[in-house]
Design brief:
By secondary structure, the protein is an alpha/beta fold. Helix content is 38%, strand content 20%. It has a domain at 16-168 and 189-214 and 273-306: Vaccinia Virus protein VP39 (Rossmann fold, 3-Layer(aba) Sandwich), CATH 3.40.50. It has a seven-stranded mixed β-sheet, sandwiched between helices.
Length: 308
């Protein structure tokens, strides 16, 4: 069954409300996934390495670095290796994720751990030189996060991130639309809207691009397990309030079969990469304005590295 055709002045508002995220459910999902995240987070790891590689294209020498949405701390460890003299802060709203991060850090390269929501940072204005965020923004209110990141970034500070775009899990969304009219997959934000949000928050020189990744599965059950084990449970306000029954899951499986290729089911992820600078303003003594890097230069250098 396809989703019903809504019309009238309240339709758009109803649709937006249905996709609003339940923050407490999101937090519980990531708490539960702390012990399974690393094994299931293949995509997160690949995107993280791509994101970290982009830092090679800057000459930033940060004194304070924040890994926003740190999860089990892989990026925090990499940032501490890259910037050994810097204070690296692993920030996450999941206590259990931060506990896992603490167990995995090296005593030689320790980082701080802070439990907080990205929309309400317990950090002083202008106190951070670099913020890196891997696949976190889709779980937040971007405008609130951008405003907080802009507040805590020092003059000439850099915000470098990845997040999911609207084509993410398009096969799963399409299959569910043939089963019922509830929301089963998050609504992800378009790259251009993300860029507009950065500008509204006061960032300068935003550069964004998109890469697509495809994971493949033998069946829908294994895709659902991966999503659960990485904390990506359905947290939309319009989600079904009970467990999916056998009949509903069988209908989902049948609807997903139209996408099967070479014996496997694809799951598409549209990943938006971006970076933006905090305006130089009254730069601190000894600081210099960093040179901005164009999208064309990023693509050229990344392709050259992958071709080695």
């Amino acid at each position: 069954m396809n989703a019903p055709d809504k019309s009238g002045p309240g339709a758009a508002a109803d649709d937006i409300a249905a996709y609003a995220l339940d923050a407490s459910r999101v937090r519980r999902s990531f708490d539960r996934a702390a012990s399974t995240f690393d094994a299931a987070g293949v995509l997160h790891a690949e995107v993280r390495e791509n994101l970290l590689a982009r830092l090679d294209l800057t000459t930033l020498a940060p004194r304070v670095v924040m890994d926003a949405g740190a999860g089990t701390g892989h990026a925090s460890r990499a940032l501490k290796r890259r910037y050994p003299a810097a204070l690296v802060i692993a920030l996450d709203f999941s206590r259990r994720m931060l506990q896992a991060a603490g167990r995995r850090q090296s005593w030689l390269r320790r980082f701080a751990r802070v439990q907080a929501a990205a929309e309400r940072l317990p950090l002083a204005d202008g106190s951070v030189d670099l913020i890196l965020s891997n696949l976190m923004l889709q779980w937040c209110d971007p405008d609130s996060v951008f405003a907080e990141f802009r507040r805590v970034l020092a003059p000439s500070g850099l915000f470098c991130f990845s997040t999911f775009g609207p084509d993410t899990l398009r096969e799963l969304r399409s299959a569910w639309s043939r089963v019922d009219s509830r929301t089963h997959v998050n609504q992800f934000i378009d790259m251009h809207d993300i860029g507009d949000g950065l500008v509204r928050a006061g960032f300068s020189s935003p550069v964004l691009d998109v890469e697509r990744y495809t994971l493949t599965y033998l069946d829908v059950g294994r895709l659902a397990a991966d999503l659960k084990h990485t904390g990506a449970r359905n947290a939309t306000a319009g989600r079904p309030r009970g467990l999916t029954g056998r009949r509903g899951f069988a209908e989902l499986q049948a609807a997903y079969e139209v996408f099967r290729q070479e014996g496997r089911l694809p799951a598409t992820y549209e990943v938006v990469f971006g970076h933006a600078w905090c305006p130089a303003g009254s730069a601190r003594r000894g600081d210099t304005d960093p040179a901005t890097v164009s999208l064309e230069e990023i693509k050229r250098q990344l392709q050259a590295r992958r071709g080695r």
